[in-house]
Each structure stands twice: as structure tokens, then as C-alpha cells.
Specification:
With 152 residues, the chain is mainly alpha-helical. It has 7 helices and 3 strands, in the order H-H-H-E-H-H-E-E-H-H. It has a 3-stranded antiparallel beta sheet with strand order 1-3-2. Strand 2 and strand 3 form a beta hairpin. It is elongated.
């Protein structure tokens, strides 16, 4: 790969631009790939939260975890949960506990395999050490600017 600038020039480049450009590229690629199998990124998040919970999760539990994902918001998230139910991937009982249907489990496994392929694509030529350093540097930028990430 050819870099945009020399090392001396890169260290003077604005992190805001490059972090946004990386975000934009990754999210656009992810959303396009998920659309290709008939779902949205928020629907994937819902499926992933419900699929890993043996006893399912309540709507409130799913919402509490996902409300900060890419500033989606609770109303939009509720609509995405409703869509996963309408598509027959998830059920909701009287106590608002969400559970996977057999069709939902099958689709989740297909989407999870796609997500793994996307991860491999994004990480091509990037060692685990480089990736770890990148995340730590980004978290330091968040900290240094008084920001908060969803895990803080």
C-alpha cells in the first residue's frame, strides 16, 4: 500500500480527519455488506446481543447496551428491534424478553460469518500489536479531549 504522505508529513496530519475517514470507510463497507444479505447494522447489533444470551435479553437490556452505538438513539433502536421481530428472527414474550427463533439463529450465523470475513478484510496487513496500539492511541485522544466512548 502507498501512504498519502511521508512519515514526516503524516505526523503533522489532523487526527480528526483521519479518524473520521477511517470511521466512514469501515462503517460504509460494513453497512454495504450487511445490506447485501438483507439486514442493517443496527439489526445485526440486536441479533448479536440476543444470540449470545442463553435466556435471551429484555428490550431494556438490549437498549441499555446499544443506545450509544454510533449515536443511534433509543427510538430508532426500538424500531430496529421491532423489525427483527417482524422479520421472524426474534420473538418477544409478555415480559419483553427477546429470544432467537430458529430462522433468526440461522441468519445470525450467516451474518456473524460475514462479520468475521469483514474483520479479516479490515485487518489485512495489520498485526494484533499494531491494532492494539491503534486502539490505545484512539482512546488516549478521546481521554485527552474530554470525550467519552461507549465503554467509559
Amino acid at each position: 500500500m502507498e501512504y498519502s504522505h511521508s512519515d514526516a508529513e503524516l505526523v503533522r496530519q489532523p487526527i480528526g480527519y483521519w479518524s473520521w475517514a477511517a470511521y466512514d470507510a469501515v462503517v460504509a463497507r460494513t453497512r454495504s455488506a450487511l445490506a447485501g444479505i438483507g439486514t442493517t447494522q443496527p439489526q445485526w447489533w440486536v441479533l448479536a446481543q440476543v444470540a449470545v444470551a442463553e435466556e435471551g435479553r429484555t428490550r431494556a437490556e438490549v437498549t441499555a447496551v446499544l443506545r450509544g452505538y454510533l449515536a443511534l438513539g433509543e427510538e430508532a433502536l426500538g424500531e430496529e428491534i421491532d423489525t427483527t421481530i417482524a422479520r421472524g428472527w426474534i420473538t418477544q414474550d409478555a415480559g419483553e424478553r427477546l429470544g432467537m427463533t430458529p430462522e433468526g439463529r440461522k441468519f445470525y450465523e450467516e451474518a456473524a460469518a460475514l462479520q468475521e470475513r469483514l474483520r479479516d478484510e479490515r485487518h489485512a496487513g495489520i498485526s494484533d500489536e499494531e491494532y492494539l496500539t491503534t486502539l490505545k492511541v484512539l482512546q488516549r485522544f478521546i481521554h485527552n479531549t474530554g470525550g467519552r466512548a461507549r465503554h467509559h
